[in-house]
Amino acid sequence: MEFIHLLQNRRSKRKFTTQKVETEKVESLMQAALMSPTGKRKNHWDFIFIETPETLVKLSECKPHGAKLIAGAPLAVVVIGDPQQSDTWVEDCSIASIILQLQAEALGLGSCWVQIHNREHDSTTMADTYTKTLLGIPEEKAVLSVVAMGYPDETKKAFDLSELMQEKIHREGF
């Protein structure tokens, strides 16, 4: 598949079948994450791959809106950065998150990015803190996102190229 077709077909999927993601596909996702680019190739990120249903349910409670889908996914990847080691941790982890989504799409899986950074768990706790406590992530680390994935149980049509917002493209200046 051409890369542009991969982008055209990748849509956020929030409903998944109960089919477990095969070990070789999980390993392929791990490799893709570890090959994602970082500033100065410092690799100041970590990834936690979660397949245990009970942990996925608890992780889905990390914030009140937009995370419940994690409970229905057979696999989720927590993307973690190190703000003390890198001033580009948000960018590096964002790149890793989309690399995971694109690799999932290439493997026939659906995925959805769940934002954790700067989101609240409740009025007294941030989603990042909740997630770090749940998974034993060191305090100095920061959670950017959770990428939920699995075999999609919903169909979304590909982007219609004729409907792209061409007015957002500028040449030689704004």
Can you give a write-up of this model?
The protein is an alpha+beta fold and 174 residues long. The protein has one domain: NADH Oxidase. The protein is built from five helices and four strands. The chain has a four-stranded antiparallel sheet with strand order 1-2-4-3, with helices on both faces.
Task: Quote the CATH topology.
Answer: NADH Oxidase
Biggest sheet layout: 4 strands, antiparallel
Order of helices and strands: HHEHEHEHE
Rg from Cα: 17 Å
How far apart are the termini? 33 Å
**How much of the residues is beta strand, in percent?**
15-25%
The CATH superfamily label reads: NADH Oxidase
The overall number of domains is 1
Helix content: 25-40%
CATH class: Alpha Beta
Q: What is the residue-averaged pLDDT?
A: 97
Structural class by SSE content: alpha+beta
**Strand order, biggest sheet?**
1-2-4-3
Q: How many H/I helical runs?
A: 5
The dominant shape is: globular
| Uncertain parts | none
Beta-strand segment tally: 4
CATH architecture: 3-Layer(aba) Sandwich
